[in-house]
Design goal:
mainly alpha
Length: 60
């Protein structure tokens, strides 16, 4: 089964994008958040990812 990148349901500050990326690559979400702060065009990239990443599966 192939892993899909999706928003995090547990590690979210705003919408779970950075947490989802961190879970997919197996790194700290803090590192991903720092990269978003440092990168140019970070707001545009984040907005695109918020709208394109899949929602996490619902749990009971």
């Amino acid at each position: 089964m192939q892993k899909k990148i999706r928003k995090s349901s547990t590690d979210k500050s705003i919408s779970g994008v950075c947490g989802g990326i961190a879970e997919y690559f197996g790194v700290s979400s803090f590192m991903v958040r720092i990269l978003f702060i440092i990168l140019p065009l970070n707001i545009l990239i984040y907005i695109i990812l918020v709208n394109t990443l899949h929602e996490p599966p619902r749990t009971l």
